[in-house]
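Notes continue from the previous slide.

Worked example: a multi-chain complex. Inputs as given:
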Amino acid sequence: MSNLEGVVERFLKGDAAAFQELVNATSTRLVRLSARMLGNVADAEDVVQEAYVKAYRSLLDGQFDRRAKIETWLYRIVVNATIDARRKRTRRGPAVVIDEETAIPAQEGQPAGEARRALTELADWLDDLPPDQQAVLVLKAVEGRESAEIAEILGCSEGAVEQRLVRARATLRQRRNDS
Amino acid sequence: MKDQDEDIDRRLDRLARATEGIGPRPDFSARVARAIEGEQRGGLLVELGRPARRILPALALAAAVSLVWAVESDQAFDDALSVYADETVELEW
């Protein structure tokens, strides 16, 4: 049993503090993933916070069946919530400009401005892709996840993951040729 | 096409590296903890609401019985008054 699975086990046995351990162990990766899809950290924090609340409720209700690893399950919740947030944002119109200076802490050897620009560039570049293709591209080419794990996160087959990757690349190539 | 794919991969790789250090703000864990506390309070209200929902049909039945009783009582009172009125009419000088 991995460390995180052990943490979940303790939580389910009544150790309420264990959930906070789960948050501390996974929040950086989950917020980064959501930010890479949404283009800013503040929106990503909102999405991931809601995802944790949902996960908390689901764990207590016994909806986590342990067929997947806890981290894969959390990734699934966050990816779905991020796709929903993107759809809502598309319906609402352009996002409200927020103060990303405070949302992206300066990193060692890397100015916060560079990360902010890279997030915006990534989100703008992938904006025209359908959400499922964008999710696959970010998980595979940016996060470096294996196709099998991506398939588990998205609840589809490995073949569907590969197909979405091919389509995403074709769309990006086409757009590059058009411009 | 392969060159173009390499371009795409190179750009994705650059953007991945540039965003590698991104994470939540330092107060994020505390923020999640507060949201969970709110969820626990909400959950408690739901738990308290469950018994109330269980006795709702009984309360509705009691309300219906009360209404019938009130209407019948009103009718009986009207009947009593009308008898009294009749008696008054009979007591003519």
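Summary box: Chain B has a mean pLDDT of 79. Residues 57-93 of chain B form one domain.
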